[in-house]
Design goal:
Blueprint (H helix, E strand, L loop, with lengths): L8 H10 L6 E6 L11 H10 L3 E5 L48 H7 L5 E2 L7 E4 L3 H5 L9 H8 L3 E5 L13
Parallel strand pairs: 1-2, 1-5
Antiparallel strand pairs: 2-4, 3-4
């Protein structure tokens, strides 16, 4: 079991500063649990990036719109791996860029970004990205069914960064958060 140390807003600010992420577009893949205790939770992470002038891009996938997860409602030989570890959807209906539907396994930070009214979500029903911050329209507006990875292409074109915070990675005592 990985032991985590509490993380403060000051720690986040220092990590963003030390990694020179301020003012840049940053795609964050994260595990909030890896932070240990963080006052304010996911919103503290989002605010740290926004206050540094960054644009935050997060995966906000909603694979639950792809196919039924109900036994008997799964077409055979349709190219879908029903053994895949996609959480059953907690949402129903039709995807739109205005919805806040997101797979549970996307995590707390993407859910918190989606809850903000100023966020911008890509127009892909299964693998959308969502951004918040000054470059959000630039990163998101090109995403559609034919351009699922457009936000990542735009991230690269804007000299952005991809940051893993926690998932599949142990941060030893005294280690960096990025």
């Amino acid at each position: 079991m990985m032991k985590t140390m509490p993380v403060s807003r000051a720690d986040l600010d220092a990590a963003i500063r030390d990694a020179e992420l301020g003012g840049r577009a940053v795609c964050v893949h994260s595990s909030l649990r890896s932070f240990g205790k963080l006052e304010g939770g996911a919103d503290t992470v989002i605010d740290a990036f926004l206050d540094a002038g960054s644009t935050l891009l997060v995966p906000s996938h909603s694979w639950g719109f792809a196919t039924s997860h109900q036994p008997g409602m799964r077409p055979a030989r349709n190219g879908w791996d029903y053994g895949m570890t996609v959480a059953a959807p907690a949402f129903r209906g039709v995807f739109s860029v205005d919805c806040d539907a997101v797979d549970r396994n996307m995590g707390a930070i993407p859910r918190a970004v989606l809850a903000r009214p100023e966020r911008r979500r890509g127009d892909h029903p299964l693998a959308s990205f969502t951004a918040i911050g000054p470059l959000a329209p630039d990163l998101i507006d090109g995403q559609c069914g034919d351009a699922v990875h457009a936000p990542l292409r735009e991230l690269a074109d804007h000299d952005g960064a991809v940051v893993m915070i926690g998932p599949d990675r142990k941060v030893p005592d005294g280690g960096k958060l990025y």
